[in-house]
């Protein structure tokens, strides 16, 4: 109906290419336009000005001979001021862009090792965008943005990389565990040393208290019972301690068999030995 009335409609974000007798005659903006077909004018086609995206998958290899699939996303659009170039100069825009992407990626990635390729994705994308911008601007297209969205190595290579990473983490975990066990052992040794030191102090104080108690008992007994010497009192205290010890050994149900010489002479020998030991200890302390 529009052709019969010599009117055509151009949608928003679109331009139409007008020809007269097969020759380019102008660009029609969005809206309604008069198109007198009887004078040879017609719409040759429409060109969208919307942002378009092309995903390109390119297989190449890295410097360390690892084959990878590089996925690039190209965002582009036709320029309204160069609509005639975009319409007439290229027959297949997407194939042209794909060819340039292949060329740049296969020239850039083989210079990098696999790890460097992952780290320099932005540099690869920038190189692709610069090359596309120079080439496609002559055809009336603008490259808005280029993204390297993925780098996919072979499945065996990915598995090997994961195993290397896992082994490194296990090694680090083993080192941390060994270091923790070392710290625990050091702290345990320090605690045992401190405990033994404190136990030694306790035993020394206990023995000092026993000696002080015996001394006070001897002095008190000598004062209250005239005619007794310190030696007599000490012998009596030692004999009392001896019989108390014998009683505790016999009363204990878990005690092992203990053979101790017993008799009046044995008691005297034990008293002499204990007294000599106390005297020797006292002389060492004084010196």
Which features does this protein show?
3-stranded antiparallel sheet, alpha+beta, Tetrahydropterin Synthase, Chain A, 3 domains, 287 residues, rod-shaped
Q: How would you describe the overall organization of this protein?
A:
The protein has 287 residues and is an alpha+beta fold. It has 3 domains: 7-48, no CATH class; 52-153, Tetrahydropterin Synthase, Chain A (2-Layer Sandwich); 154-228. It has helices at 83-88, 93-108, 114-119, 121-136, 155-224, 230-251, 264-286, and strands at residues 7-10, 14-20, 23-28, 31-34, 41-48, 52-61, 67-78, 141-153. The strands form 3 sheets. A 3-stranded antiparallel beta sheet has the order 3-2-5. α5 crosses α6. The chain is rod-shaped, with a radius of gyration of 52 Å. Positive regulator of hypersensitive response (HR)-like cell death. May be involved in potassium ion channel regulation.
Give the SSE layout.
Blueprint: E1 7-10, E2 14-20, E3 23-28, E4 31-34, E5 41-48, E6 52-61, E7 67-78, H1 83-88, H2 93-108, H3 114-119, H4 121-136, E8 141-153, H5 155-224, H6 230-251, H7 264-286
Antiparallel strand pairs: 1-4, 2-3, 2-5, 6-7, 7-8
Helix pairs in contact: 2-4, 5-6, 6-7
InterPro entries: Band7/mec-2_domain, Band_7, Band_7/SPFH_dom_sf
Keywords: Coiled coil, Lipoprotein, Myristate
Function: Positive regulator of hypersensitive response (HR)-like cell death. May be involved in potassium ion channel regulation.
């Amino acid at each position: 109906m529009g052709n019969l009335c010599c009117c055509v409609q151009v949608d928003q974000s679109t331009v139409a290419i007008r020809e007269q007798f097969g020759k380019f005659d102008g660009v029609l903006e969005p809206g309604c336009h008069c198109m007198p077909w009887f004078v040879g004018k017609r719409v040759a086609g429409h060109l969208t000005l919307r942002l378009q995206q092309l995903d390109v998958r390119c297989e190449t290899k890295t410097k360390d001979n690892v084959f990878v699939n590089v996925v690039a996303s190209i965002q582009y659009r036709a320029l309204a001021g160069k609509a005639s170039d975009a319409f007439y100069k290229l027959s297949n825009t997407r194939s042209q862009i794909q060819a340039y992407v292949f060329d740049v990626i296969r020239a850039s990635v083989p210079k990098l090792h696999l790890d460097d390729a992952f780290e320099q994705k932005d540099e690869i994308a920038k190189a692709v965008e610069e090359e596309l911008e120079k080439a496609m601007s002559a055809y009336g297209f603008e490259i808005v943005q280029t993204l390297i969205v993925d780098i996919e190595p072979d499945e065996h290579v990915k598995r090997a990389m994961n195993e290397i990473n896992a082994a490194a983490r296990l090694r680090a975990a083993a080192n941390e565990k060994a270091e923790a066990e070392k710290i625990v052992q050091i702290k345990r040794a320090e605690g045992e040393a401190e405990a033994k030191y404190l136990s030694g102090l306790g035993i020394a104080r206990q023995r000092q208290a026993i000696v002080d108690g015996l001394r006070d008992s001897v002095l008190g007994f000598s004062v209250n019972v005239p005619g007794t010497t310190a030696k007599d009192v000490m012998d009596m205290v030692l004999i009392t301690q001896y019989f108390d010890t014998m009683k505790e050994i016999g009363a204990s149900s878990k005690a092992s068999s203990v053979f101790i010489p017993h008799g009046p002479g044995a008691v005297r020998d034990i008293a002499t030995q204990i007294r000599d030991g106390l005297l020797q200890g006292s002389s060492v302390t004084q010196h």
